[in-house]
């Protein structure tokens, strides 16, 4: 299954807030059809609850189904809670780090900056959105004026969320610099999610 490119509000209405997918607010009032569908849906089955948690994770981080499954397998082989390791792996992706630093308004926006080679990690260009960042990595923009202007526009136009304690940003220089202080603590995860239900979903599929 490929990465989702359809209507974003449709997913938000179904799954709840997905800040990584869009920072816009759905102002459309609930229609009669929405209320009918809610009434018809009745009590959710355990399968549907687990599926929705999995979909929430997938759409927030902008992953294809195969990508998310690969992360679940990696987390399952690591020490510690599979669900917590899974969230740490996703949060330490370069596209998500840019989003959490406020250098991009959404994760798709961060991915575009990376693909277009505007971002440096430790002084070298990285054009792979899934690049796994590590503590003490330094994230900066290229010296090109276009790169600086894009980041400046994102920062000025985006709402300023509280910066997680594992990240630091220094906007006082000519190019914005973000620093990864440590592996993220789970209380700073940018999405309200029950990761254990996601792990259960995949364990029941295999």
Automatic annotation (TrEMBL):
This is Small ribosomal subunit protein uS4c. It holds the Pfam family S4. It is found in: Plastid, Chloroplast. GO terms for cellular component: chloroplast; small ribosomal subunit. One of its GO terms (biological process) is ribosomal small subunit biogenesis. HAMAP family: Ribosomal_uS4_B. Residues 92-156 form the RNA-binding S4 domain. The keyword rRNA-binding applies. GO terms for molecular function: rRNA binding; structural constituent of ribosome. Gene3D superfamilies: Ribosomal Protein S4 Delta 41, Chain A, domain 1, RNA-binding S4 domain. Residues 3-91 form the Small ribosomal subunit protein uS4 N-terminal domain. One of the primary rRNA binding proteins, it binds directly to 16S rRNA where it nucleates assembly of the body of the 30S subunit. Part of the 30S ribosomal subunit. Contacts protein S5. The interaction surface between S4 and S5 is involved in control of translational fidelity. Keywords: Chloroplast, Plastid, Ribonucleoprotein, Ribosomal protein, RNA-binding, rRNA-binding. Belongs to the universal ribosomal protein uS4 family. The gene is rps4. Transmembrane segments: none annotated.
